[in-house]
Amino acid sequence: MNLLRIAVAAAALIAWSGAPAQYPSRPIKIVVTIPPGGAPDLAARVIGQKLSEVVGQPVVIENRPGANGNTAAEAVAKSAPDGYTLILAADSLIAINPHLYARMPLDTLRDLAPVASLVSNQFVLSVNPALPVKNFAEFIEYARKSDPPLNYASGGNGSQHQITMEMLKARAGIKLVHVPYRGGAPATTATMSGEVAAMFAGTSTAPQIKAGRLRALAVAGAKRSAAFPDLPAIAEFYPGFSNSIWLGLFGPAGMPEEVMAKLRGELRRVLASPEVREKLGAGGGLEPYSTTPEEFTALIRRDYERFGKLIKDTGIKSD
After folding, report:
1. Which residue of 75, 196, 230, 279 has the smallest Cβ count within 10 Å?
2. Average model confidence (pLDDT) across the chain
3. Domain boundary among 211, 236, 261
4. Last residue in a domain, options 212, 236, 260
5. CA distances from 124 to 75, 180, 215 (A)
6. Same domain for 109 and 145?
7. pTM for the full predicted model
8. Tens digits of per-residue pLDDT, 218-263?
9. Same domain, 113 and 257
10. Spatial CA neighbour of 94 closest among 308, 245, 255, 300
11. Torsion, CA 73, CA 268, CA 291, CA 304, rounded to 10
12. Is residue 11 part of a domain?
């Protein structure tokens, strides 16, 4: 009888404390801030499929584009903090949007809980093949002389696509007109069709580049990309120029630490999988990027401050 009372009391204490039941016990939804195609969507589907296998529950990917991720982020922030609704977010959503949008529907540092870093990626400067330039230096010279200025595509206002091109404009002293799209895939399509002249995009555009539908000129990381070893880094022309991206998994603030720890552990297993590493690399030159929770939090804070200063210094605005 005493043992029974102890068991009942323990169960009541667990229920009162809000401790989660066995997690996960039902499907997990990962919201992606862009339409299908492009690096975040690719990462979500590759990682989500393997995560489903290791946790024994379906992982559903939901594409919800809009306002450079703000629409999806607001919905996730308002969902139950139980670990069943998550968002795969780019650094632009977390660290750039708050400095760019006059009215944010959420506080990205307060209303979203950083679960884990997932992947990193380089940006590639590409142009429509009809543009009469064969390399980076020719592009800069051509852009400098163009009147009216060339148009360039981005994955949306405040996206890293835009930030990186605005950095290049400021460093090279060229004028380009920003044309935002609802994600990297539509921006890529626009560049291939000649609707715009150029764009920065992740290495997920490798198939279009190899097929000759885009002409790649340079990469934006601090050093050359393993996916495009023959392309120069812009830093070779403008020392110190560097901008790469990261993608991470976030949930609503207030998620139980037990759920966070479970997800982090399983994601480490997923990212260590040779199968996942191969698919991420083959699909878009994405590289697994695992950090400790402390390292991830520090990275977010550092980028938040870095991009805030960059946006202020360059005068980038949400068009």
Report:
1. 230
2. 91
3. 236
4. 236
5. 31, 17, 10
6. no
7. 0.81
8. 999 999 988 889 999 999 999 999 998 999 999 999 999 999 999 9
9. yes
10. 300
11. -10
12. no
